[in-house]
Write a structure and sequence with these properties.
Largest sheet: 8 strands, mixed
Structural class: alpha/beta
Order of helices and strands: HEEEHEHEHHEHEEHEHEHEHEEHHHE
Strand order of the largest sheet: 2-3-1-14-4-5-6-7
Number of helices: 13
Length: 379
């Protein structure tokens, strides 16, 4: 969003000064002050009272047209601003809250008691009064209304990144060559790496499954490692660490397909990135990316029928190089749909302008003024 709309909006992004679980801050960043980063100004906030005091002091000097909260369950950068707003300690400004797929049935089943308690308390405190929710699809709008009823909702798909070239990678179809599948996401229950690994126990063709991402949940990763130890000899799963954004396209392009049976995504940036890199995708039916078989770019399958995932992998292994190249070309086109990208960018532009007027989109009209946005993302 910042990359595509940063020339029209003054984005001010508040985030943590460190990755989740890290003891120390990022290298080479200035903390507790605004730092220019690309088309936005970023406030890398230190933990504790000092960081909040510095942020509060800084925000007092800004004119904010819109507060954009980038998660439903983040205690620091969603719950705290909502509490401050509720009790008059945050400068009055419209609030736009993106739920990011966190209200999908699959997502709510994970840590269900904790999430239900959170929502019950937040509703009792009326933290969501006069908040505009952002849904990225009709499906997510239904999820929001199921939880919150008749609230204000704007619908706009997430802003895609810029298009990527299709790299010249020749698919292998040698029966003795192992398929190369890839997982790229946070290592957390919602992303369902554990489910993917359990499915691979039944795959009868040689396969290498490389795992990229930040380990967000150590206990969950221990479970995944236990399953990795039980995989058959012809299936290997290897953790490869995390990737920098500029590495993603080139690394993904080296694989045969993207295997991501997530419990739920409101959009799924990594799915689009995989498609843009020319990867066929094997995902769950809990995302907006549907009808993949008809588009010849992969499959979206039900999580309660794991044998369908196994069957797809084994069928994919039988395709020759020409068939796989056709799928790669179709995937690249699907991931770099310039017409849809332009429409999504325009929808987000209109959504932000409408939200700054405390209105919803698509009922809000386009304006041509510049707005200052304060964004409290999930740190």
């Amino acid at each position: 969003m910042v990359d595509q709309l940063g020339d029209e909006f003054d984005f001010r992004i508040v985030t943590s000064d460190r990755d989740l679980g890290d003891a120390g801050p990022y290298d080479d960043v200035e903390v507790d002050r605004w730092t220019r980063c690309g088309k936005a100004s970023v406030f890398y906030q230190t933990p504790g009272v000092a960081g909040w005091r510095a942020l509060h002091s800084s925000l007092q000097r800004l004119h904010i047209d819109l507060v954009y909260l980038n998660s439903l369950f983040c205690s620091t950068h969603t719950l705290r601003p909502l509490i401050q707003r509720r009790f008059g300690r945050l400068a009055p400004a419209p609030v736009l809250l993106a739920t990011r797929g966190e209200l999908s049935p699959g997502a709510l089943q994970l840590k269900a008691f904790k999430k239900r308690t959170f929502l019950t308390v937040a509703k009792a405190l009326r933290l969501y009064d006069n908040v505009i929710f952002q849904a990225s699809s009709q499906h997510e709008e239904n999820d929001i209304r199921r939880e919150f009823g008749d609230v204000k909702i704007s619908v706009a798909s997430d802003v895609p990144g810029r298009g990527e070239p299709l790299l010249d990678v020749i698919p292998q179809d040698d029966a003795d060559t192992a398929l190369r599948a890839v997982f790229l996401s946070r290592i957390a229950p919602k992303k369902n790496l554990l489910g993917a690994l359990k499915m691979l126990k039944d795959v009868r063709v040689p396969l290498i499954y490389d795992i990229y991402g930040v380990i967000e949940d150590e206990a969950f990763w221990v479970e995944c490692q236990a399953v990795i130890q039980t995989l058959p000899p012809h299936v290997q799963a290897c953790f490869q660490g995390s990737l920098r954004p500029e590495e993603v396209n080139g690394v993904l392009a080296q694989y045969d397909f993207f295997f991501f049976p997530t419990h739920g995504e409101n959009y799924g940036h990594v799915i689009r990135e995989a498609l843009a890199a020319g990867l066929p995708i094997l995902i769950s039916d809990q995302t907006p990316w549907r009808d993949l078989v008809a588009q010849n770019v992969g499959a979206d399958l039900p999580l309660d029928v794991p044998e369908e995932f196994v069957a797809w992998i084994e069928a994919f292994a039988q395709l020759d190089a020409v068939q796989r190249q056709a799928m790669r070309a179709a995937a690249h086109v699907r991931g770099n749909d310039s017409q849809k990208a332009a429409s999504d960018i325009d929808a987000n532009r209109n959504m932000l302008y409408a939200a700054a007027r405390n209105e919803t989109f698509p009922s809000g009209l386009t304006t041509s003024q510049t707005a200052s946005l304060s964004n409290f993302p999930l740190g």
